[in-house]
Amino acid sequence: MTIPSLPLDPAIVEKLSGVTTATLTTVLLKKGLRNVWMRGTQPLKPGQPRVVGRAFTLRFVPAREDLATPASWGAPISTRAAIEAMPAGCVAVVDAMGVTDAGIFGDILCARMQKRQVAGLVTDGVIRDMAGVLGTGLPVWSQGTAAPASVASLTFVNWQEPIACGGVAVFPNDVVVVDTDGAVLIPADLLDAVVETAVEQERLEGWIMNEVNNGAVLPGLYPPNEDNKARYEAWAKTQR
């Protein structure tokens, strides 16, 4: 049974849009979560904007010749049907098992996702029809490109169920933040706590960077000692 998609508060999206994935990994590390960065999720195009959204999951398994056929593209359980179930604002997260010799999506599928206002596509696999995909404007993070279609190496089996992507366990409705450093997962149950901590950490690091640019030395500044914490808090009060 697939898990229904949940909306994400626009205020959460706005806050996380100002937080780097590097900061998020540090915040999650402090909460005991080390395995949250999806390996192999690199931006397809330089300069893609940071994307924030609920994970809409899709899963492939190894190709089986009686199932992985062009005819399967028209089946009730197919990537085409999954795309029609994607809500606006979601991030499609695709478990391709790290396979890099067959593209999971091409330009037509990505164009449809763009029309449905999907925020972005993240996969540990690859895409095909790169020029066309870039032309759709859909932000994509993957391991690159390959000419063969998905059925050359993969069988699509379902959507909106727990998956693995880049070695990370991803559950439907977890939150994904993705930027030039790749994709990071925030477990849904930790979202509120992570957002507030991450926003504050980003503010602190901005202050520290300004101090560094003004010639300050790192010991006692990064991380800040009690004196620098007091200085930061005094500054932060003027910004809130």
What is the H level of CATH, i.e. the homologous superfamily of the largest domain? Ribonuclease E inhibitor RraA/RraA-like
What's the overall geometry? elongated
Tell me what portion of residues adopts beta-strand conformation: 15-25%
Oligomeric assembly: single chain
Please count the helical segments.
7
Task: Kindly identify the CATH topology of the largest domain.
Answer: Glucose Oxidase, domain 1
Q: Could you tell me how far the N terminus lies from the C terminus, measured between alpha carbons in angstroms? A: 45 Å
What is the alpha-carbon Rg in Å? Answer: 20 Å
Question: How does this structure look, described?
Answer:
The protein is of the alpha/beta class and 240 residues long. The protein has two domains: 179 residues, Glucose Oxidase, domain 1, CATH 3.50.30.40; 45 residues, no CATH class. It is built from seven helices and eleven strands. The strands form two sheets. Strands 1, 2, 3, 4, 5, 6, 7, 10 and 11 form a nine-stranded mixed sheet that branches. It has a two-stranded antiparallel ribbon with strand order 8-9. The longest helix has 23 residues. It is elongated and about 70 Å long. The chain starts with 9 loop residues before the first helix and ends with a helix.
Key terms for this structure?
single chain; 240 residues; alpha/beta; Glucose Oxidase, domain 1; nine-stranded mixed β-sheet; two-stranded antiparallel sheet; 7 helices; 31% helix; 21% strand
Strand and helix layout:
Elements: H1 10-16, H2 21-30, E1 37-38, E2 42-43, E3 51-62, H3 79-84, E4 91-95, H4 107-115, E5 120-123, H5 130-136, E6 140-142, E7 154-159, E8 163-165, E9 168-170, E10 175-179, E11 182-186, H6 191-213, H7 226-237
Parallel strand pairs: 3-4, 4-5, 5-6
Antiparallel strand pairs: 1-11, 2-6, 3-7, 3-10, 8-9, 10-11
